[in-house]
Each structure stands twice: as structure tokens, then as C-alpha cells.
Amino acid sequence: MSASVQTGESHTGPTESSRQSLLATAYAVLLPLFILCALAYYAISTHTRANSDSQQLAATDARISKVGGIEIRDANRPLVGGQVVYEAQCAACHASGVAGAPTFGDASAWTARIDTGFDALVKSALEGKGAMAPQGGGNFSDLEIARAVAYMTHAAGASFAEPDPESGEGESSTPAP
Question: Which residue ranges does UniProt annotate as crossing the membrane (predicted)?
């Protein structure tokens, strides 16, 4: 009885086939080679990058530019009339009486204000009063704001003359009868 019992065989891992070896070697050589070629192509290509020198200079100029600026307007431009200034600047509040503003053309709302005189009304418009922000120093000159005051008060029954550039900002300080 000679039964051969095979004991003590050493167990080894799965054997690698030659096909697996060949693929591993190919990937180990070709993958780094492909990556190097792609990097070389990117480095020598002529396409415009997102952060080119001109864009970097423009971004730097924008970051270091002055915050404020000066706008120089034409001093010889033609002055606009009171109606134009009213429609552009004053109508937003005075057309509907927003925030207690006297409504355009409402004589009862304007009477007490008209009695203070034209100069006081112009001063209130230029410096602001109550909820009304100062109108001086904006898109219109002080003379044009005075013309708008004359236009609004005329619609409420006053007879203030629209100021002329030669005569100053309205010489009459009391309403005409």
C-alpha cells in the first residue's frame, strides 16, 4: 500500500501570464511618456492663456486705480429751463407728493412756502429740507435748480421770474402780485 500522500506542498500565488506582464510593462513606459508629451505640447503651444501678460496688466491697473474721479463738464453748455429740470429731477417726488413733498400745482400746499420768498425756496432746494436731499452739486447747476423752483411755484400760483444767467439766481425774494 503505497499511498502517496502529498503533504507539505508549498502554496504559491497565482502565476502571472506573459500577457499581464506585457501590459504592465507597456503601461509603465507609455503612460509617463504620454504625460510628458502632453506637458511639452502645452508648454510650447501658442494658444492664449487666461492669465496672459496683457490681462494681468489690465487687472493690476484696475486694482490700483483711484477710487474717485473728477468729471469736468462743459461750462458753456446751454442751460436748461425749469420744466426740463423739474421733469428730470423733481417730478419723482413732487408729482405725487411722496414723503410730504408739496404736489406740483397744488396752491394750498405751496402757499406757506411761497410766502417765505424765492431765495428761501431756492436755498431749501439746494441744501435740502426734510426728506428732500440737497439738489445742489448734481447734474444741474444752481441756476437751473432755481429755474425749476420758479417753474413749480408758478404752477402753484406764484409769479417768480425765471432767473437769467446775467441777473444772478432770481433777484426777487417776494412773490409778485
Answer: 24-44
